[in-house]
Design brief:
72% helix; mainly alpha; Cytochrome_P450_fam2; elongated; Cyt_P450
């Protein structure tokens, strides 16, 4: 229904998609260059913690965790945006 209504909400949806794409790229980049002994930022810390939890549970949850991290970052940017 929102697709048929004119207004600024269309720009908001487009901006959210761009933000999700950026976060997805950052998480992918961090996964590829992750050094558990030298975390660079909270993304690395989150991925390291996620790997420890996955190992403890004996299941791979990296994909699910990536989605949670994206949601966390989206909330972070929404809170800080004017």
């Amino acid at each position: 229904m929102m697709d048929y209504l004119p207004g600024p909400h269309k720009k908001i949806f487009a901006d959210c998609e761009k933000l999700q794409a950026y976060i997805r790229e950052e998480v992918t980049s961090h996964k590829q260059t992750l050094d558990p002994e030298n975390p660079r930022d909270y993304i690395d810390c989150f991925l390291i913690k996620l790997a420890k939890v996955a190992a403890a549970r004996s299941e791979d949850r990296m994909e699910h965790g990536g989605k949670e991290l994206m949601e966390l970052q989206e909330m972070y940017f929404l809170v800080l945006s004017p």
